[in-house]
Amino acid sequence: MTVPARITVITLGAHDLPALRDFYASLGWELAVPGDEFCGFATRGAMLTIFPRAELAKDGHTTEAPRNEGIAMSIAINVDEREQVDEAIEGIRAAGGTVLKEPEDAFWGGRSAYWADPENNVWEVAWAPPDNAVMQMVRAASGL
Length: 144
Hints:
The protein is α/β, with parallel strands linked by helices.
């Protein structure tokens, strides 16, 4: 059997679930599964869930990782228009997110910015022109 190449849920392990939940809710994201011990947000792609870090480690039969530092991975939000990168960053800044890279034109022909939530999970907001090969793959994979 092959493993399906499909991402349906991204789970962030949280040190302070209520604070992280409130941060994402303040971005205007739809809280589809409310709770203080587990919650989930409906997104246009995969479901974003938040689970206490200690419980996530227990569920995965591993040890709890220390607080995030630096960047080990990022989660991307692709927007439809170039100016939406700047608009999204202003919304993130207003909600208390940390902007790591201000919006700028990217070497690959689009525009992007990086930001971190209150627990230093790193995200990218990106726009790419419709003829960009990676963007074509993103649209096809996510059903956009």
